[in-house]
Write a structure and sequence with these properties.
The chain is of the alpha/beta class. The protein has one domain. The protein contains 13 helices and 8 strands. Helix 1 crosses helix 5, helix 7 packs across helix 8 and helix 11 runs antiparallel to helix 12. The longest helix has 13 residues. The radius of gyration is 18 Å and the shape is globular. The two termini are 20 Å apart.
């Protein structure tokens, strides 16, 4: 049964006409592949405000660490796509097939699609939240036909509600059809929610972490053969051990405990 069908109360406004999802680890995961996700983003970006999350193992762990604060944000997303081979593999054990749609690949393909779109159509305006202003010219060089604005974000967003609200208010003042929130978990999901609370009328916000860093070469992706083996996390850990050791070696592995706990609850 889909996540929508499992809810007895009327749908939240942001969930209306929501694509089909399944529930796994107390979170919704969409059933759309990358091309379908991009098509929906392009088609629906002029509609009422919505946001998209791309949960990986760390997102799942973070949401379960703060279930009252973070789980409702992921559950209220218009679209939630699986950004983790580990999550997808665990879902298979429950006979749930989750298409893998990584945030990095999604953003790259989305911007390429918008860059090549029919010039007779009004171009989609993109707001990139997070990177330094130096990223703007780099993106314009690769995607010259996409109207792009870069909004740098301060450090400490995860710990400061005041900073997050300041960023959200600045986003409200800008004109955009698609906002790429590249400020990490859980700050980007919290800002996506705040945009709705502040009364954003239209547009789609995507929570896509370090996707822009990969596009402009600030960080490197693992070789394809490592990605296919599900070892991109090991490559990133080797490249940035001081920053990522705790996330990949301490926090993210707790997803296995969450999986076993939720499985035991269903058994009882």
């Amino acid at each position: 049964m889909s996540w929508l069908c499992s809810m007895s109360r009327p749908p939240h406004p942001l969930r209306r006409r929501r694509p089909r999802h399944v529930r796994f680890l107390d979170m919704p995961f969409g059933q759309l592949h990358q091309a379908e996700v991009i098509r929906l983003i392009v088609e629906q970006s002029a509609g009422p405000y919505r946001y998209i999350v791309t949960p990986n193992a760390y997102d799942v762990v973070s949401a379960h660490d703060q279930p009252k604060r973070l789980l409702p944000i992921y559950q209220a997303a218009w679209l939630s796509v699986c950004d983790s081979r580990i999550v997808r593999a665990l879902a298979r054990l429950e006979r749930n097939i989750l298409p893998l749609v990584t945030g990095s690949d999604l953003v790259a393909r989305l911007l390429a699609t918008l860059n090549d779109q029919d010039r007779a159509q009004p171009p989609k305006r993109i707001l990139v939240v997070g990177p330094s202003s130096a990223v703007g010219p780099m993106l314009h060089g690769v995607y010259p036909n996409v109207p792009l604005e870069v909004l740098p974000a301060p450090y400490g967003l995860a710990q400061s509600a005041a900073l997050r609200r300041e960023v959200a208010r600045t986003c409200m003042e800008r004109e955009w059809d698609i906002a790429l929130l590249c400020v990490g978990c859980p700050a980007q999901a919290l800002i996506a929610q705040q945009l709705g609370e502040l009364g954003r009328k239209a547009g789609i916000a995507l929570c896509v972490g370090a996707s822009i860093d990969f596009l402009v070469g600030k960080r490197s992706r693992a070789p394809l053969w490592l990605q296919r083996l599900g070892l991109e996390w090991a490559y990133r850990l080797a490249c940035e051990p001081a920053r990522l050791w705790r996330r990949y070696l301490v926090e993210s592995p707790r997803i296995f405990r969450i999986f076993m706990a939720t499985r035991a609850l269903r058994g009882r």
